[in-house]
């Protein structure tokens, strides 16, 4: 992704070849700041405090966390301890466990002396593969957008609604939900994106709007409750969202509020697509509502809002009546029956077990 004319991934090795650079996502949209991670503890902090977030990027960051841990101690206990500490950071996105399992499976059987070098090469590979996967998702999703564009009046835009940030900032590059949008835009298909602001952390308003702007994609930020109204008035041609964990039966867990968009889309006959890499499919689960752990975050995120004041200073203010209780479930589950299709690196699948297993037989055998 180009940021101010320079090409960036969201995570990369520093010039010294061992420290890890990330972009501090808690500073958006006010500042573009790079953080240098040198230790496992800093990596745990970065994921927990959401300096990095989004399922695929959480997985990639955790892989580098193992690399940094191996610089201090390559013993079995250090490896297992680092993996456990990283796994505890966020409960819902399965890419975290997926990446850590890959690292453990590769590192545990080998000589501890070789572990650090192998860890770096595997973490680099996870990042490179994330990019290739997202490009494939982009090509598959762009076909859907192109088909809808053909049904519209010449020159009018395909209107896509998205929720949260399943964009460049949630992955190593391209994004999942945004990859088809970027590819359509780049190939001259006119697109316009309705960006849900995504309370309480405002990933839509702060992150998705920022990156669509960097890429020059026309977009409009809306409050989370506007989507249903826009769908009723035929202002939305399709919905594309990402996911933090999707079961082998096609139930989709994503940022809180996604389910309500899927319900509205069903009622209005608007196609509802989920873009995801296979690393986000949890092949061990069948029932999303019962089995996916939903992160409950601090109520402070609901009580307070941060923004730039008229004088330019960044301020946090309270917006909830004093003394009121707040709740903050961060994700919800959209049942497979509400999902039109899963846009994956191996094509657009139906949201059901047979379609998923047929596309990814290798992942079922070795989750
Ligand atoms: O809490 P977050 O910001 O990590 O939640 C991110 C999302 O819900 C994304 O939509 C999801 O991870 C898909 S990212 C490609």
UniProtKB/TrEMBL annotation:
Entry keyword annotation includes Isomerase: yes
Main EC class the enzyme belongs to: isomerase
InterPro entries: IF-2B-related, IF-M1Pi, IF_2B-like_C, Initiation_fac_2B_a/b/d, M1Pi_N, NagB/RpiA_transferase-like
EC number in record: 5.3.1.23
Marked site positions, Transition state stabilizer: 164
GO MF annotation: an example: S-methyl-5-thioribose-1-phosphate isomerase activity
Reaction it catalyzes: 5-(methylsulfanyl)-alpha-D-ribose 1-phosphate = 5-(methylsulfanyl)-D-ribulose 1-phosphate
Protein name stated in the entry: Methylthioribose-1-phosphate isomerase
Lineage of producing organism: Bacteria, Pseudomonadati, Pseudomonadota, Alphaproteobacteria, Hyphomicrobiales
Name of the gene this protein is made from: mtnA
